[in-house]
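Methods — Computational structure assignment.
A single polypeptide chain was analysed. Its primary sequence is given first, followed by the predicted tertiary structure written as structure tokens.
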Amino acid sequence: MTLEQWTDVDRFFSDRLIATDPALDGALRASEAAGLPNIQVSPSQGRLLGILARAVSARRILEIGTLGGYSAIWLSRALPPGGRLISLELSPEHARVARSNLENAGVSDRVEVRIGPALESLARLATEALAPFDLTFIDADRPNLAEYFDWAVRLSHRGSLIVVDNVVRNGAVADPRSQDPSVLGVRRLVERVAQDNRVEATAYPSVGVKGYDGILVATLVRDP
């Protein structure tokens, strides 16, 4: 099959299962107009994130990698009254666009975007008197995925979910010859997860409008 066919299949489902949403569509347009890279999750992936958040009755969500706030809108809409999402973003410009998109979507009251290197922001989070996160979504630079995952476990509790995007890398993750830093980062993540007896995990390859990729999903089976 070709990327065109994958895209057609993806859109077949999203066109029928996901209603047109002015706030989400507007977030995509605003992100494009601001020159942000077109690397946010697809509508089907955004819906999946919302379903997962509701499935674990998430009240506290952590996102590593805000970009234009598209996935944060999906996740924040799954929160119950009083729920909170903290999203970490390196770029001040991306954060500015995201905050505007979150405001336009009517969810800025439950989302906090923090600017700075994610590893530094995560270390600061660990010093705050915050309840553990019920779900963490990691969609940031791949070389640091293993470290992001370690922090996500530390900031979670038994039963929490951790979702990592873009782990298949067009199949390159299975190519031992690849020296791509992103691929090496994913492989190091998988090795780290496999050695961590606090979690159970699986990865799910997928094809669609984002090409050939997939997610890793882990749940904590022991307290960190």
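Note: Residues 3-17 form the longest helix (15 residues).
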